[in-house]
Fold this protein.
Amino acid sequence: MSEDLNQRIAEAQAKLDAQKQPSAIDSAKGMGVGFKMASDFIAAVIVGAGLGWGLDELFGWSPWGLIVCLLLGFITGVKNIVAAATEAARQTAENGSTGLRNMAPKSGQDKGDGA
Amino acid sequence: MMVSTDPMHQFQISRLLPIEAGGYDLSFTNSALFIAIAVFGIIGFLAFATSNLQTIPGRAQSLAEIWYKFVAGIVHDVNHDDGKPFIPLVFTLFSFILIANLLGMFPYFFTATSHVAVTFTMALFTIGLVVVIGVWKNGFKFLKIFTPSGVPLYILWFVVIIEIFSFLSRPLSLGMRLFANMLAGHVALKIFAGFIPTLAIGLPVIGVFMGGLLVLPLVVGITALEFLVAFLQAYVFAILTCVYLNDALHPGH
């Protein structure tokens, strides 16, 4: 009798789990991932431009400092996005939710495959 | 009649109590007022909630416990047991950003987190702390965060440059995301809300219905979205603080 009940509970639970919609928190996390990618990219480009301009001012390398550093900043921005996307995809595969937790590179692993 | 719909007006800083000391303008501004309200509001609420601790918590104590456990959970998820000393820091950052963001959602209130000066102070403090803790705990090994493992030597110099750029972009990214989100959200809200009176005045009868039936639901929707963003940005700031601290504690995993 009780086994039958347990089985029915398990079946009902499985049915509920299967039709579970992504919660508001999950979609909010997805939004967070998006914001993070956008701002990481822009920030890297701005850092490149600022650093290049600073080097030009300091050492009189104009315009090469700006050109080189801006390109490096752009590369860094793309790398930041790829790293964030890789991590988000890994988390999604792992636990089914859009990953924001632990999102940024845990230094070693994903910087390794990013390079 | 002209409706005041200047979306940037709400971000203007005004002196409430002019103070000048040593040639510096140290006036108490509307920004400072709302920062103070946020800080003393948090301290006051938590002091009240924990003043009469019980095994079976009341409403205020429950809320304080959920709040604290949420932040402690974030820190534990990212940093595990090493993160314990940083729970107060992350809790402070999260609470301040959350309450300052939510205060900004009240009409006519000032959004302190919509100013670069406030967000960058927090971002620079966070990254500064990461550097200090990283060097203090690891010494020169902290520099390992710039040299990912498993990269062949001939390309390592280039990867190191990219990593340095990436590290420098962190405080900018951290501060910019919060400020830009709050600024953009409030500007969008103001502009869309401004459509309603503009339509009503511009098109006497149809405009009132268009504003009321088409634009108002949109404004309500954006307001709801802004509450989500207010929470989300505090959450993202807290998570990234933890992630960066993790780099400081374990450079070059």
User: Anything to note?
Assistant: The mean pLDDT of chain B is 90. The radius of gyration of chain B is 23 Å.
